[in-house]
Write a structure and sequence with these properties.
This protein is of the alpha+beta class. The protein is built from six helices and 15 strands.
């Protein structure tokens, strides 16, 4: 199904950052990685084998704040919890679609020893604002611990590249499972259950888990093979799909619409100020996009 859109947005001023359809994740360039690892519990059984197969978990590095908790650490919970470390940022639609599953796992398994830590590593500068993150946490009713990673300390320690990406850390201190992007929720939950049973056996407890794996009614199925429109950025750093202006250029540009509008390309009309992360229009501007997907647009209105 082909859907076409042509809209004229009128605000005092509007800052547009990107239009997102659906992808597995977004790529960022990390800084130098932190190589410190968490000490693994010294068990004679299979430790050497695990070291050959799995990486050791890293601690949270240079956190700039916490939400839903005063403090949280990975190292203090090794041997006591199964830890799901979720790399996310709140404007990412791919991250947002994982929230129903994270919330359900937190509800079902926190009493059995699952600790979910949401590591918020911002893609855009405005996502470093704590109040913005708090608003998103409240909007989506996220109740597990959130760590603010504005300096990308933990992001870099894990050599992470994507939003979202999940790291499942066993009670033994090893990263036992990783998943990039959306999907594979049943597989991830099966891994969670397996590690929780290991944890209970370690503690001498009954390994039985009462809840079963069920389809989440709030889950949104995404058919990625149907999506033709890529993620489209307005800022000069990544505006490669801008079809009627100068790509990669900071400054004010005056745009006019061509007679022929190509699919899956960004067209602007009017005077726009292009910055590295965003494009700003004060009045009379248009955005034209012929797209083949559901879409989310990230913008800020300045009144």
């Amino acid at each position: 199904m082909n859907i076409e859109i042509e809209k004229n947005y009128q605000f005092g001023a509007v800052i547009f950052l990107f239009i997102a359809a659906t992808a597995l994740g977004l790529i960022n360039t990390p800084q130098e990685a932190n190589t410190d690892s968490i000490a693994v519990l010294n068990e004679t059984e299979a430790v050497e084998m695990k070291q050959d197969e799995f990486q050791r978990a890293k601690p949270l590095v240079d956190s700039t704040g916490y939400i839903n908790t005063d403090n949280v650490s990975i190292e203090d919970n090794i041997g006591e919890k199964v830890i799901l470390l979720d790399m996310w940022t709140y404007s990412c639609i791919n991250c947002q679609r994982t929230f129903p599953h994270l919330k359900e796992w937190h509800r079902k398994y926190s009493d059995d020893g699952l600790l979910i830590i949401g590591n918020h590593a911002p893609e855009f500068s405005f996502e470093k604002n704590r109040s913005n993150v708090e608003n998103a946490v409240n909007k989506y009713n996220l109740t597990y611990p959130i760590v603010l990673d504005n300096n990308y300390g933990t992001w870099n320690a894990y050599n992470n590249r994507y939003w979202p990406q999940k790291y499942l850390i066993g009670a033994d201190g090893f990263i036992r499972y990783e998943h990039i992007g959306e999907g594979r929720y049943d597989q991830t939950e099966q891994k969670i259950r397996k590690l929780l049973k290991e944890l209970k056996k370690r503690k001498g407890l009954d390994p039985t888990l009462t809840d079963e794996i069920e389809k989440n009614p709030d889950s949104e199925e995404v058919r990625s093979e149907m999506i033709k429109t890529p993620e489209i950025y307005f800022g000069s750093e990544r505006n490669i799909y801008l079809a009627n202006g100068e790509n990669g250029t900071i400054g004010t540009q005056n745009f006019t619409l061509p007679e022929q509008i190509e699919k899956n390309k960004l067209y602007l009309n009017g005077e726009w100020k292009i910055e590295e992360e965003y494009a700003e229009n004060h009045e009379g501007g248009e955005i034209v996009l012929r797209y083949e997907a559901r879409f989310q647009i990230v913008r800020e209105a300045i009144l």
